[in-house]
Amino acid sequence: MALMAARVVGGASRSDLAATPPYPPSALVRRVLFDFATHRRLAPGSDNWPLTWARDGLQYTSWGDGGGFGGTNERGRVSNGFAVIRGSARRYEGRNIAGGFGADVPAPFTGKCYGILALKGVLYAWRTGDASGETAYRLQELWQSRDGGRTWMATGVRYAARDFRNPDRGFFAPTFVQHGKDHGLARDGHVYVCATNVRTERWEVHVPGEVVLLRAREREIADPAAWTFYAGFDPRGRPRWVHEPSGRRPIWTDRTGGAMMVSVTWHPTLRRYLLITEHGRFAAGNMGLFEAPNLWGPWRTVLYAEGWGKGHIEASTFHWNFAPAWWSADGLQFVLAFTGTGGNDAWNTVEGRIELFRSKDE
Length: 362
Known about the structure:
The chain is an all-beta fold. It contains no helices and 23 strands. The strands form 5 sheets. Strands 11, 12, 13, 14, 15 and 16 form a 6-stranded antiparallel β-sheet that branches. Strands 1-2-23-22-21 form a 5-stranded antiparallel β-sheet, with no helix packed on it. A 4-stranded antiparallel β-sheet has the order 3-4-5-6, with no helix packed on it. A hairpin with a 5-residue loop joins strand 3 and strand 4. The two termini are 31 Å apart.
């Protein structure tokens, strides 16, 4: 078995964890193990791959700059397409829905998607930019599909770079916080979205790294007026929400390592949110994994790795998502979907498990 251990800072080798993490070590998670003997790679040339778990039991995803499942970097290439994943963690297959090789219908839009959500039988996706790279900073639009990802329409929820005044450059790559199957584990009837503040015009890790938080009630997700931003705490220590984007405050910060695209998952067994992003340098496998009881913290570091997967895969990964349908019954075994550049410019999965300092029931 090609196991790679990723421990919290202080318990790992310096080769795996050479950078300085922004938060103290987790007191709950002792380490995370990745079994690279289970590594599987499909859809060469297509990247990104956010995931959500729908009420039909299937997982839905999107990809960028490739042909998707069955395609290549040239065959079936689209700017952004949508696909469905069927099967178990050990036996699954992907099929293109909209755009890409063999899809029934064309891709609905250009740009990229780093956030997709299944909610009460409807799919929602954030459109980021209108092409690739730095165009991601131009606009963030919410789209919806009522037929399983075949056809999509814009909701009118939109944030564009021109809507922000200097020095505020806005945010990019919104991603939905995943709350289980069909959003069924949502804690308060809201949909939550995390995004990274724009700090550079280059397609590179943004320093300082600041992740911000948006929310809307589930029934009002398609209403532009319903969305509010986390703005810190009120005098009684409760989260404060404002409609004006300029009033937003970060829920997570890495002042020296920075941040890029993020994924965030609610883990019902651990009762923690798990946030993953990269730091230091884009597409170098510099993964940071953090946990917190609430989206506004307090955050703790689970791992802060440089060259994640080195020795098993090329150290060129940049985006990681827990597959929401493939957690084990005890919540400690998982499948991580990831992508990158070079050989990792594809759909990739690897199995892993979480080891705790103490029983999760204590």
